[in-house]
Design a protein that fits this description.
61 residues, little secondary structure, 1 helix
Length: 61
């Protein structure tokens, strides 16, 4: 099932439109828009949580 196409049957479960259940856990602040087209997801959604809460981890040994 496709969920990212607006005319698809699964669009209603697109992570960019489904509200995140704990929006207070979404890291606030600006995310750089390197493409200049703006972000495709809405604020306080599952996708917003994913994009803002990613971390980079590296071993130091």
């Amino acid at each position: 099932m496709h969920v990212r196409w607006k005319d698809s049957e699964g669009f209603k479960i697109n992570p960019g439109i489904v509200p995140f259940h704990l929006p207070e856990f979404i890291v606030p602040g600006e995310i750089k828009d390197y493409g200049g087209k703006g972000w495709w997801w809405n604020p306080n959604t599952v996708e917003d949580f994913y994009q803002r809460n990613k971390v980079f981890q590296a071993r130091t040994d």
